[in-house]
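Researcher: Please translate sequence to structure tokens.
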Amino acid sequence: MPTVEWRSPASEMAVQQFDIAAAKLNLDANVAGRLRRPERAMIVSVPTRMDDTRVHVFTGYRVQHNDVLGPFKGGIRYHPAVNLGEVSALAMWMTWKCSLVGLPLGGAKGGVACDPAELSRHELQSMTRRFTAEILNFIGPDVDVPAPDMGTNEQVMAWIMDTYSQHKGRAVPEIVTGKPVAIGGTLGRKEATGRGVVYTIIEAAKHLGIDLSKCTAAVQGFGNVGAVVTKELANIGVKVIGVSDRTGGFYDPKGLPVEKLLEMVSKSHILEGCPYGEKIRNEELLELKCDILVPAALEMQITKENAERLQCRILAEGANGPTTLDADRILKEKGVFLIPDILANAGGVVVSYFEWVQDLQNFFWTEEEVNKKLRDILVKAFHEVLGMSQREKVDMRLAALMIGIDRVARAMLWRGLYA
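Model: Translation complete:
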């Protein structure tokens, strides 16, 4: 179990997943002990002057789990539920994700406990710059490279890059990924996570012998990931019958008008007030009868309480940790084909890696090149996981974790312990 200061439902789930995979791998006990907790964790105060002139002190976090394969890499999340345990779990999953898809990077994660929807642009910028200043000595292009996550976007990354650059006295675009293209971002990064989810769904459908043009899908979460998944699924002929965000969801068995939904959300940023389909709750969306279900919102949405009622054939995890261990067992018994988070949503970190490489070289690729390289990496990883799953007779999640953890453990044994 994690020690008390790291403890949260998400961190306990991440450690339990690790322990199951480590036992299956007969992992060296000393290596396992090191990997069960992060190398470094920071909690920082983020005093921010609000628009009414008062100073509000937010709490910020940066957790660096393991860098045996290369610099730390991981997103920054702005959400009211951000805490040390959650960020620790996300950092651990990031280590396995980078390892699984063959990136020379380690896992990290950061965040600030806040509701960005309630902050003005000025407050958001002030908070972001102060948070960057607080973690400045612990990040760097060859140390730890942040990226966007839930509640953050390319504008937030631009502010982090500028703050870091001001302190260094020169432009340092390679300090973050997910930036605007105009200041060193890469083409295809914004869509990468959602696009990657769909690439893995296509491979799963081939494996299962399913015709996607006759399939239906439901997507929980309509932020950057969920919206792109919805658009890309519609583009390949899948009928999207349900979508939802934090304000609720909408369902139409005949199919929702995806282009109109995307246009509406690009203006209002929420689904509330949507004139299409029947209004449903987020919980109901997960239980819709559909071929493909994509949870692309928060952790621990599919639990032992609702897993039995899921009616999908393919579950593709666009979010990190949306399914609990108890739910995994139920879904396996039901015959649901799971595409685990560290594989399904790895497109974001893959293209973040591409962006970092392009910034370091000052040499940029076309969007077609980015998408082709992304697809090649994810297709290869999918079939490695599928092969492991079939050979070891384990589910896809355990297979993915075994591959990711084994590569990290081997590297740690080669490098040894400096003590």
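Researcher: Any highlights?
Model: DSSP finds 14 helices and twelve strands in the chain.
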